[in-house]
Amino acid sequence: MVDIHRISAGNVNCYIVVDNDKAILIDTGRKRYRKKILDKCKEHHVSLIVLTHGHMDHCQNAAYLANALKIPVAMSNKDINMIPDNRKQKMSAKTFLGKMVLLVSLSSFEKDTLDTFEPMVYLQNGDSLNEYGVDVKVVELPGHTKGSIGLAIEDKLFVGDALMNMFYPTISMLYTDEEKMLESAKCIGEMGEKTIYFGHGKPKRNRKWVK
Q: What are the CA-CA distances from residue 150 to residues 157, 163, 203 (Å)?
């Protein structure tokens, strides 16, 4: 039986996924929440950090937590150019709310810092994380960033920012490639009955995200 522990780190979610006595951490939040996240990880046998993508709000604590817990970091190699500079992949937005979020994000990219880290595991579509004790499958969901990934386990799907529930459940408000972002959102919608765990906002049932 899989247990999901959602860690609210401001407006960003981190998740500890526990399968029997093994666990992985999905995303790491921002520096101001590092002690809270580390303390939660110490309650479980976390053996791997998985980053859904390379944006600062999702991976700012990756180096710190990997060092503190003595565990590897996993992500797509398509987002490696964003470490440590998130400006390496240009972001766009269409909606008013999206443009507001984009302004805040770009300001953060300019003012804040991201410690460099070297992932030891590079993830691709269909990869399994069984060797880390959790029966998770990797799903590539590009568009928000080039290397955005999701993680599927049982009837649950962790989507990072491929979808957002920051204000309401929707396709990603920010993207590096709008066409691929829409394709990924459509792919998620076609996965059927699943609970969607967002990088921002509370979980919701899956639905068709692109008409």
A: 7, 10, 14
Instruction: Output the DSSP codes for 103-136.
Output: HHHHHHHHHS-------SEE--TT-B-GGGTS--
Written as six digits, the tokens of 12 are 């960003």
What dihedral do alpha carbons 124, 89, 30, 9 form, nearest 10°? Answer: -70
83: phi > 0 → left, psi -120 to 50 → alpha, else beta; which? beta
pLDDT digits (tens, 9 = 90+) for 116-134: 999 999 999 999 999 999 9
Residues 6+ apart with CB under 8 A from 47: 22, 23, 24, 71, 132, 133
- C-alpha to C-alpha distances, 137 to 31, 42, 61, 111, 128, nearest whole angstrom: 28, 24, 23, 35, 5
Nearest-CA neighbor of 47 among 74, 86, 29, 81?
74
Amino acid at 159: V
Q: Count CB neighbours of 51 within 10 A.
A: 26
Report the pLDDT value the prediction gives residue 22, as an integer from 0 to 100.
93
Q: Are 15 and 9 in contact (CB under 8 A)?
A: no
The alpha carbon dihedral of 189, 172, 12, 139 has a sign of positive
CA–CA separation, 169 and 202 (whole Å) = 9
Q: Are 25 and 15 in contact (CB under 8 A)?
A: yes
Task: Name the pTM for this structure.
Answer: 0.97
